[in-house]
Each structure stands twice: as C-alpha cells, then as structure tokens.
Amino acid sequence: MPRNSNSFLNKQKLLIAGAILFLVAVGAVFLKSDATRQFSNLAEFPVENYLENNGVISQEDFLIDGTVENVLLRDGTGRRFLVSVQTGKNGHLIPVLVDSGKKPIQRGQRLLMAVHVGAQEGIVCTNYEIR
C-alpha cells in the first residue's frame, strides 16, 4: 500500500507548530522570571514606618507591591500616583512619582515597583511591572 504524502506533511507541520509553541512558552516563562528577579534583591517598603515618621527614610531603594488608586499630579517629569499598599490587615495610601515615558498605567492596575526614596522628591518609581 502506498504512503499518503499529505498525511506525512500534515504530521510534520503539526510537529513544527508544536515545537514553535513550546519555544514561545519557554521564552515567556524566562522573561517573566527575569522581570521578577530584578526586583528580588530589594527590601519591602516600610509603609507604616514611612507614614509614622513623616517620610524620614531617604536615599534607599525598596519594593512596593500595590494598586493604583488615583492620579494626583501630572507634570513634565512624570505622574504622581496614589498607590494602595496592604500591610497585614491594614491598607495604606502613598504617593509615588512614576516616569511618564514608560508603559501606560491606569487606575486599578496592580504594580510591582522598584522605588527610590529621596529627600526632596519623595518616593520615585525607578522600574515597574504590571501584574
């Protein structure tokens, strides 16, 4: 009985498509883990300490996992967002300045942010990932 060449080509195409999907999935997982790894060396932002001491913390880098509640201010350097951060059972709102040249951010989005606390500018987001 002769071989059906169309069947062989269809199996070959299916195998190639499966391999491409597998490579795309592996690449996505790698990129996701790489993005998370760049935040892993930062300490969690001490929200309650920052609020109780009127922003005394300065010149340090931290990690904030929060949700954008509102836009407070827009200017040439970026946008200042009001970010809701959960600490245990408590929720706190803190202002964070985000560079306007990055991916658009909307109200209600959850962000993982690397922030720098400066003496003059307050809490400034240096990098973020939308969750």
Characteristics of this structure?
2 domains, alpha/beta, 131 residues, five-stranded mixed beta barrel, elongated, single chain
Structural account:
- This protein is elongated.
- It has 2 helices and 6 strands.
- The chain has 2 domains: 1-37; 43-130, OB fold (Dihydrolipoamide Acetyltransferase, E2P) (Beta Barrel).
- It has helices at 5-37, 47-52, and strands at residues 43-44, 60-75, 78-87, 90-98, 110-118, 122-130.
- The chain has 131 residues and is of the alpha/beta class.
- The model has no long low-confidence stretch (mean pLDDT 80).
- It has a 5-stranded mixed beta barrel.
The named CATH superfamily of the largest domain:
Nucleic acid-binding proteins
Helical content (DSSP H or I, runs of 4+): 25-40%
Low-confidence stretches: none
CATH class value of the largest domain: Mainly Beta
Shape: elongated
End-to-end gap: 57 Å
How would you concisely characterize the structure shown here?
This protein has 131 residues and is α/β, with parallel strands linked by helices.
Question: How are the elements arranged and paired?
Answer:
Layout: H1 5-37, E1 43-44, H2 47-52, E2 60-75, E3 78-87, E4 90-98, E5 110-118, E6 122-130
Parallel strand pairs: 1-2, 4-6
Antiparallel strand pairs: 2-3, 2-5, 3-4, 5-6
